[in-house]
């Protein structure tokens, strides 16, 4: 495969940023895109009272919301410019209470494909500079082209 | 097994309602507890711009946030009064875009246990009174007793 | 959709039976196809020492082998005659030790699709005529057409 | 944590080997334990006609049988000497057809725990010395002590 040109590189970063900005859920989470590379996206967010479960930790669903976006956009970086990405399914294991001031979610492509892309995610709680693995995700994506009403 | 007394019935409903009210995430979702019975909880919420993915549908993570709470509280209805419930893992399959005015999430206990409880969830989009299945979840819970800082 | 003709009905049953007969793994399990209907397949097998884990119960992987075939063939019943079915992923919850003389695995289509079909499976242990639910599966299938070396 | 004594090291290896030898399913697969270290187990097996799906590849269920044992025994290496290990659930993603002469399955502990241990598995097809990743697993284990009829 030939190396991506500078234009193409700009393109996938722009596409991910634009799509991320249209996700109302990411604004609700106060989530920021902190890294976008081919097959790799990192998202950060801060603890907030509107994201908690009953013990004051981050709700497992909110952890999975950020991980799902990280995995989905990691997949989108390697899809054609006119493709939309849909999540088929994901599974999350909660390893420890999501307790911390800040959280970092990693999405990584394990196996890209024309139709199906498989990704993995890891969530870390960050407390006073120390990172702790709190969740792992396996997430399967579908690349959709030429479907009405779906763009990236 | 003897029938639950009126007091016990009130107790598990009160415990679920109180815990639900402490989840900041449920307020962010505008989620309402609409049914609480032994092994069974339903949650409803309305579409809102702060809950969306890039195409304007409900974000898969927000669907899973409501389903995870429905499954977790379905499990809590059958746990001892002093127990806390933690999600070990869940898997969600997205069957159709989460497109609708309103959503109903069902959590059901499949297999209660002293330590591990297995539950299933189903999410429906409600549009002009018609319900459409949009997601299924399998969710494993742990019953935790006597752990510092964790109550129901 | 018009009703399937008698010829088409025979066709999907024949395709499932022929494909099942080519699975060496089903012979190793001593598995029998006991029900084949649109979107629905049941498989039975007997306990055997070559299928066990360390406590003498059916190995979780052997339970999932039979469930995966039941789910895959349930999906195949609703795919075009020239399609092959591939498993993208599955998740299994083991609810109780797989202890019994005989086992029955159900595969059911939850959501058929042109590319992606979502199915659910349930495994039962049968002991002296009494059935006990021992495992649940969620399984995602892909319908593949015109790919070299893959037929049903 | 103090270093394990030579006796303890021998103990966990012996316990894993003895338990593996009691799994009839591992003999059916022709599976060999090729690596046993704290939190880490590798299993190898050869292609055989009795392990196949309809296209002659290794059946997804047989891949998951070997991966489940690799993950379970990786967990057992870090459990108390009198504990038994049970699989609560696992999820497998099939990334490519399981096509090869030989297969290697890795089980790794991600998060050990007193009750719940979370592991990950990876399966590789080996063809003419070249390894290809064909499947990933996430597997949750329970450590069981003092339960009738269950030893390691």
From TrEMBL, chains A, B, C, D:
<dbReference type="Pfam" id="PF03061">
    <property type="entry name" value="4HBT"/>
</dbReference>
<dbReference type="InterPro" id="IPR006683">
    <property type="entry name" value="Thioestr_dom"/>
</dbReference>
<comment type="similarity">
    <text>Belongs to the YigI thioesterase family.</text>
</comment>
<dbReference type="InterPro" id="IPR003736">
    <property type="entry name" value="PAAI_dom"/>
</dbReference>
<feature type="domain" description="Thioesterase">
    <location>
        <begin position="55"/>
        <end position="129"/>
    </location>
</feature>
<dbReference type="GO" id="GO:0016787">
    <property type="term" value="F:hydrolase activity"/>
</dbReference>
<dbReference type="InterPro" id="IPR029069">
    <property type="entry name" value="HotDog_dom_sf"/>
</dbReference>
<keyword id="KW-0378">Hydrolase</keyword>
<protein>
    <recommendedName>
        <fullName>Medium/long-chain acyl-CoA thioesterase YigI</fullName>
        <ecNumber>3.1.2.20</ecNumber>
    </recommendedName>
</protein>
